[in-house]
Structures are given as structure tokens and as C-alpha cells.
């Protein structure tokens, strides 16, 4: 048998993205949006037709955690009056009634989930309508559905306790969750539900009252026993790491099956003997759901045979390591990638085929109908291992010989030099880098890419956009300017396109959150920078103003973490290669007269291992790579960095060690709470806490931003603070950006006048 945990939902051509944005803009009705969703589900189930089940409820208009919270009635008080899709999208995107719920990264992936807000004042009630509708659709198509559902413990563990005592809230939420299961059990004579509990891979963590509810052996046993008694055929799956401690607890329950990740969680093999002694079916996550490299079926088959030497083969179901949400739909439309490199790549559709073939090989041996596929797969993997395309001796020699791994002047000395030379005021105002990517701008880049317009016409259009950006920033009085990044399609893709060792898909889109999709670069070989990547545009922008223009780069750790990374070298070695490429760019910029350079590390924390015992190793090489990239900066070159969606309490010492002169962070949805950790540790470098949320279309008032700045000043002195939005502005519209930034500058003027 074989099945998967989940499938990409945005559609082969981003149909869901387009429908959502049309709906939000009032150009598409709710029924039209629902029809698009229905068509997409049918298409995605068709791709799964060779599996023993199709995944139901892995589809979402925005996010599965949000779906479940909404289905349980877990709505913040500010949105209680709203219902239907209006209430649902209010939680995700904000509303006149209030700011959106926080978003953060789904474990160590680049997918964002909406953080539920739980309160003892809430009365949770189950609503099964959406699951019921999707289940009925699958049944009507003659398919065998398996419901994908976020587990109660993961839901609670990832939520924010807005008010009240965690154990009491957990009990109320549990009762609503079990009521939801009651309703699900009525859908069929036997309903199969796969409960995703990735929070269990963190091991025993009981240092907070909320965690104590999650990592409670008795509670876990009681909940899953109650679920089974309701007639549910329950599978509990964990992924992204091993979950041996919690696996033992789950094996003591009456669930039908347990899903384990044998790609990222190799230590799950330690649980095999216990599984063999139980009556549980093992859902073995053997095909990588996180990366895009073609599976080595020979190696996978050997892994499965070693598992089958312990667990009876008839009790093993083949599956993906996690949901395929994290990879693109399929590579049918990829005509521009080098054919040999393309042969090394496997997207969601191809992974389904690998799973089908691997199941046959596992059950029937390699001499059957799929022998040709197997032999071809062996040849592809052998070619990749020996190809000259993946190896560059000069790059590897440079990495080995590099000794410049940190700035040679201490921050206290640097900041004095920078303050004197740059002359910026206290509460200096700036933005994170990007300005709106308008339809006209996208059309300009696309036209140039397709050869429909000349290079001169393209560059003229980009320069006009930069002129407008600079003029607007000067008009409203920002202190430190940016060029707006009109030449960049994406903060990682733009750099990857100019670096050796990268390749790009035409249609390899992956959902980041809601309608936000990214097309991650693919790192297939050794990385080098043949020429300057940003200098020309930054120098042009600087020529338009006497104010300081920031150079904008993406850091090596973020480029790594937001790419599909080759799996034939350690990630640390790939990151070192990227770091030296970024160092070359910083040197060119400072030699070209650029005085402030921002090296964004938005994804620094998302690469953190989920197991505490592995964190030090990651921190060591990630920190070294960032410092290597900035080590070339002179004392009077001010280095900024930006981090988003991070809880900093556990990594504040690492942030200090990064030694960036200024760090900007996202705090608008969390008040000044996030900033307090910087004060607690005596952080001395300068900080730019975001004063308004750019992920919402809301336009903050001057008074709102002024209040936010005053709250920040309760934590850090004015000399240490910069004022900026939460993040880049590329996803917003000009009619939102202009008044928001104008209000931000006016708020700073008002605060300065009172200091």
C-alpha cells in the first residue's frame, strides 16, 4: 500500500492564488472561488489515483491551522461578529475590526501558518461543514478518501494563549476537537483520518504550562483512545525529525497506524522493534516531501528492506516524509532547464510516480514491470554523482583557504565612526528594502525576459521606477533611502540567477502563505559569483539623491534556506560557498561608494534543527557563514540585517554574535514584547523594530504608530532605535504604502518633538 500526507494546493498554474486575489479585490464571487477550489481538488485527486487513498482536507484557502482553529470557533474577540469567509480571512489578513493574527514559520520550513489565539473567555464549537463538503466531493468521484487533520496537540502547542490558564483552555479546546471527530465519524461507515502531530518531533519539552499540556503521556493516550472509540481509523504521523519518545506513547494506544519520517528522521529506526511488537501499521515516510531531487530508488529500497527485517512487510505502507505542500506541482512545463539537470529533479507529480514504482519494487522485486524505470533511475543518480556540472575545484579550494571570517574592528569603535560619517538622527527612519511590485513592473520584467522588449527599454523602465521611489521617499522625509528593488523578482531568485551553481524552474511555484507563492532557486552545483550583481542599480539610485542609499543583499543563510539545496554535500559547505559570493558583492558595493549595506537574513532561524541537541552545530556554521559574508566590510561601512517571524529569546546570543551594526525585526503584531529580550540581555547594537504590519492591507494612523514608538522607547533608548515597517513592501499596493509610510514619518516627527 501507499499514500501521501498532503498535496500542493495552489494549482499547477497558481489557479488558487489568482482566484483568491480576485476575490479579495471584489472581482470574483464566493461561488466562483469555491468552484476553482472544487476543480483544483478534483485535479489533485486525479494525480493521486494510483494511491490507496486520496487526501481530503489538505486543501485550504489560506492555511490548515487556520482552517482547524476556525472550524473549532477559535476566533479572537475582535472578530467575533464576523462569520463565513469574511471572518476567516480577517484572521489571516486583518480587517477594520482589528489586526490579523500573527504568522510564523511551520517548524523549519518556509511555509507560514496563522497562529491561533486561544482564551479562557472563548466557547469553542465544532463545525464540520468544510470537511464534509470535501469528503462528499471525493466520494462522488468514486475515490477512497483519507482525511488529513492537524492533531490536537500540535494545534494547541502552536497556538498563542491570549488570556487564561493553559490547562483549562486545553480542556475546552479538546472537548470541541472531540466533538468535531464525532461529526467526522458520521461521514462514512469507516472514516480514515491521518492526524499530523509534527510537534512530537521536538521530544519532551515541558518547560512551560502550555507545553506541559502537549507533552502529557496521559492526555495523549486519553485523546487518541477517545478518537478510536468514536469509530475513527486513526493514523498519527510525525515528520521533519525523529519522534522516538512520543512514538512509544502512541504505540500504547489503540490507533491503527503510525507515520514516521525516514528521510529527515533517520533515528526513527530505533522505534522499529517497538512497532514490530505492537499491532500498528507503519506508514514509512520514504520519499522526500521537502526537497526536489529524484529519489535514489536503489538506496530507498535497501532502507525499506532493512525496515522490513524488523517490521513485517504486510504492516508497512509507503508514504512521503511529509506533505508535498513544500514542493512544486510538476515539471511538465520545464523546457529551459538543462535536460541532464532536469533529469535529477522530481516535483510532486513525479514523487507520486516514484512512490508507486517503489511500492511495486518493494512488494514484487526489481525484475517486474518497473525494471526499466528502476534501471533508468540508477543511471540518473550515477550521472549526477559524477557530473562536472556539480563540481568546481576553484570554489572548493577558495572555501578551504579562506581565513577572513569576522570584522576586525569592534562594534563600539565602528558605531562611533559610522555615526560621525553617516550623520543620521535618533529614531532614523527607513524601510526594509522593497517597494510595491506593480502589474506594470512585472509586465516590464516579463517582457524583457521573453525578448519582447529591448534591454534599453527595460532599463529605462526600471530607472523610471527607481526615480519615482527616490522622489517619494524624499518627499515624505525618510532618512535612509532604498531603491525599491524593481529589477528583482524575488529576494533570493534575483541573486541565484546571477550565481553559478543555480538553476531556475519556469513554473516551480511553492506556497509561502495564503496567495503568496515563491519559486525557490535550485542549487545543483558549486556556487560562485562571476560579476557584480547589484552595484549598477544602487549607484544609479544614489546619483538621484544626496541622502544615503542602502545597498540591499540577501544573506547566505537565507539564500540557502529558501532554496532547494543539493543533497550530495552538507548544507554547511554549500552555505560557505554562498557566503564568499556575498562577501565579493559587499566589497564591490563599498568600493563603489555605498555606505550602508543590508544583508537580509530573514530565514536564519527557520533553518534551526527541531531537536535541541542539534542546534549548536547549526548555529555554529550558520553564524560563521554570515560573519564570513560581512567580514570584508570596513569600519565605516554600516551593515544592517533583517529577520522576520522569529521568536528571539532562544537565539538572542547568536544574534549578538552576528555582529551586524543594525538589525530590523518584525514586532508590529506582538507590540514591544519581542523587543524586551534585547533589553534583558543588554543588547548594545542598534535595532529597527517594525512599527506597522505590512502583511495586512490596513493603513495605520499616525496616532497608532506614535503609540507603537512610545512603547518601543519604554524598552530601548532613542539612540539605539531605528523606525521602519515590519518587512519589505513588495506585496502591498502603492495606495496602501504611501499613506502608511507618510504616517510613519509624521509619527516619528511627533515623538521627536516631545523628547
Describe the structure.
- The chain is of the alpha/beta class and 755 residues long.
- It has 28 helices and 23 strands.
- It folds into 2 domains: 15-327 and 337-385, TIM Barrel (Alpha-Beta Barrel), CATH 3.20.20.210; 412-754, TIM Barrel.
- The strands form 7 sheets. Strands 1-5-7-8-9-10-11 form a 7-stranded parallel sheet. Strands 17-19-20-21-22 form a 5-stranded parallel sheet. The protein has a 3-stranded mixed sheet with strand order 13-16-18.
- The longest helix has 22 residues, at 455-476.
- The mean pLDDT is 94.
Quick one: biggest sheet? Answer: 7 strands, parallel
Our measurement of the CA-to-CA distance between the termini, rounded to an integer number of angstroms, reads 69 Å
Estimate the helix proportion, in percent. Answer: 40-55%
Count of folded domains: 2
What is the architecture of the largest domain at the second tier of CATH?
Alpha-Beta Barrel
Give the CATH level 1 class of the largest domain. Answer: Alpha Beta
Overall 3D geometry?
globular
Task: Please tell me the overall pLDDT.
Answer: 94
Number of strands: 23
Give the DSSP E fraction (strand runs of 2 or more residues).
Answer: 5-15%
Strand order of the largest sheet: 1-5-7-8-9-10-11
CATH topology of the largest domain, by name, is TIM Barrel
How many H/I helices? 28
> In terms of per-residue confidence, which ranges show pLDDT below 50 for 5 or more consecutive residues?
none
Structural class: alpha/beta
Amino acid at each position: 500500500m501507499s499514500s501521501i500526507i498532503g498535496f500542493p494546493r495552489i494549482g499547477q498554474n497558481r489557479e488558487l492564488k489568482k482566484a483568491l486575489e480576485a476575490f479579495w479585490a471584489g472581482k470574483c464571487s464566493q461561488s466562483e472561488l469555491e468552484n476553482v477550489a472544487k476543480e483544483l481538488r478534483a485535479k489533485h485527486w486525479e494525480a493521486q489515483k494510483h494511491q490507496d487513498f486520496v487526501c481530503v482536507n489538505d486543501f485550504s484557502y489560506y492555511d490548515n491551522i487556520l482552517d482547524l482553529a476556525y472550524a473549532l470557533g477559535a476566533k479572537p474577540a475582535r472578530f467575533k461578529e464576523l462569520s463565513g469567509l469574511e471572518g476567516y480571512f480577517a484572521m489571516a489578513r486583518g480587517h477594520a475590526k482589528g489586526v490579523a493574527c500573527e504568522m510564523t514559520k511551520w517548524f523549519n520550513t518556509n511555509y507560514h501558518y496563522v497562529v491561533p489565539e486561544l482564551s479562557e473567555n472563548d466557547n469553542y464549537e465544532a463545525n464540520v461543514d468544510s470537511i464534509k463538503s470535501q469528503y462528499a466531493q471525493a466520494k462522488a468521484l468514486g475515490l477512497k478518501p483519507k482525511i488529513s487533520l492537524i492533531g490536537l496537540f500540535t494545534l494547541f502547542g502552536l497556538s498563542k494563549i491570549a488570556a487564561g490558564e493553559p490547562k483549562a483552555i486545553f480542556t475546552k479546546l479538546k472537548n470541541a476537537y472531540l466533538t468535531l471527530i464525532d461529526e467526522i465519524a458520521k461521514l462514512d461507515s469507516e472514516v480514515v483520518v491521518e492526524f499530523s502531530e509534527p510537534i512530537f518531533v521536538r521530544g519532551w519539552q515541558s518547560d512551560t504550562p502550555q507545553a506541559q499540556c502537549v507533552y502529557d503521556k496521559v492526555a495523549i493516550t486519553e485523546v487518541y483512545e477517545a478518537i478510536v472509540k468514536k469509530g475513527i481509523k486513526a493514523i498519527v504521523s510525525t515528520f521533519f525529525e525523529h519522534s522516538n519518545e512520543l512514538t512509544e506513547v502512541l504505540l500504547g494506544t489503540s490507533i491503527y497506524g503510525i507515520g514516521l519520517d525516514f528521510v529527515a528522521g533517520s533515528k526513527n529506526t530505533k522505534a522499529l522493534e517497538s512497532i514490530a511488537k505492537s499491532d500498528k501499521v507503519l506508514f514509512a515516510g520514504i520519499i522526500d516531501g521537502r526537497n526536489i531531487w529524484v529519489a535514489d530508488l536503489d538506496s530507498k529500497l535497501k532502507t525499506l528492506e532493512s525496515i522490513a527485517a524488523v517490521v513485517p512487510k504486510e504492516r508497512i505502507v509507503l508514504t512521503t516524509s511529509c506533505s508535498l505542500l513544500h514542493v512544486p506541482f510538476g515539471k511538465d512545463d520545464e523546457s529551459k532547464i538543462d535536460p541532464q539537470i532536469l533529469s535529477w529533479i522530481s516535483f510532486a507529480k513525479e514523487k507520486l510516480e516514484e512512490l508507486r514504482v517503489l511500492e511495486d519494487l518493494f512488494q514484487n522485486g526489481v525484475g517486474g514491470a518497473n525494471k526499466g524505470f528502476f534501471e533508468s533511475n540508477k543511471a540518473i543518480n550515477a550521472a549526477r554523482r559524477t557530473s562536472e556540472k556539480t563540481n568546481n575545484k576553484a570554489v572548493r579550494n577558495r572555501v578551504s583557504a579562506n581565513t577572513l571570517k569576522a570584522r576586525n574592528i569592534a562594534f563600539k569603535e565602528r558605531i562611533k565612526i559610522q555615526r560621525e560619517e553617516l550623520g543620521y538622527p535618533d529614531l532614523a527612519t527607513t524601510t526594509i528594502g522593497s517597494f510595491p511590485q506593480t502589474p506594470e513592473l512585472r509586465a516590464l520584467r516579463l517582457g524583457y525576459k521573453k525578448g519582447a522588449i529591448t534591454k534599453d527599454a527595460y532599463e529605462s523602465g526600471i530607472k523610471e521606477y527607481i526615480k519615482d521611489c527616490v522622489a517619494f521617499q524624499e518627499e515624505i522625509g525618510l532618512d535612509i533611502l532604498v531603491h525599491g528593488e524593481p529589477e528583482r523578482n524575488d529576494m533570493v531568485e534575483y541573486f541565484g540567477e546571477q550565481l553559478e551553481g543555480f538553476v531556475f524552474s519556469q513554473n516551480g511555484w511553492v506556497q509561502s502563505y495564503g496567495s503568496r507563492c515563491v519559486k525557490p532557486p535550485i542549487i545543483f552545483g558549486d556556487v560562485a559569483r562571476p560579476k557584480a550583481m547589484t552595484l549598477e542599480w544602487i549607484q544609479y539610485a544614489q546619483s538621484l539623491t544626496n541622502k544615503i542609499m542602502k545597498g540591499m543583499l540577501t544573506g547566505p543563510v537565507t539564500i540557502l534556506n529558501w532554496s532547494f539545496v543539493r543533497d550530495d554535500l552538507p548544507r554547511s559547505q554549500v552555505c560557505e560557498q554562498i557566503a564568499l559570493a556575498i562577501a565579493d558583492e559587499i566589497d564591490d558595493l563599498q568600493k563603489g561608494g555605498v555606505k550602508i549595506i543590508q544583508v537580509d537574513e530573514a530565514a536564519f532561524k527557520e533553518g534551526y534543527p527541531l531537536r535541541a541537541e542539534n542546534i549548536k552545530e547549526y548555529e555554529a556554521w550558520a553564524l560563521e557563514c554570515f560573519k564570513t559574508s560581512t567580514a570584508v566590510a570596513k569600519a565605516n561601512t554600516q551593515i544592517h540585517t533583517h529577520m522576520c517571524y522569529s521568536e528571539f529569546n532562544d537565539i538572542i546570543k547568536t544574534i549578538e554574535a552576528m555582529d551586524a551594526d543594525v538589525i530590523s525585526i518584525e514586532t508590529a503584531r506582538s507590540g514591544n514584547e519581542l523587543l524586551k529580550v534585547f533589553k534583558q540581555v543588554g543588547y548594545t547594537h542598534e535595532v529597527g523594530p517594525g512599527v506597522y504590519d505590512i502583511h495586512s492591507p490596513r493603513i495605520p494612523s499616525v496616532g497608532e504608530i506614535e503609540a507603537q514608538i512610545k512603547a518601543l522607547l519604554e524598552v530601548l533608548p532613542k539612540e539605539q532605535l531605528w523606525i521602519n515597517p515590519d518587512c519589505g513592501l513588495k506585496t502591498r499596493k502603492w495606495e496602501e504604502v504611501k499613506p502608511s509610510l507618510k504616517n510613519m514619518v509624521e509619527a516619528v516627527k511627533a515623538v521627536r518633538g516631545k523628547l
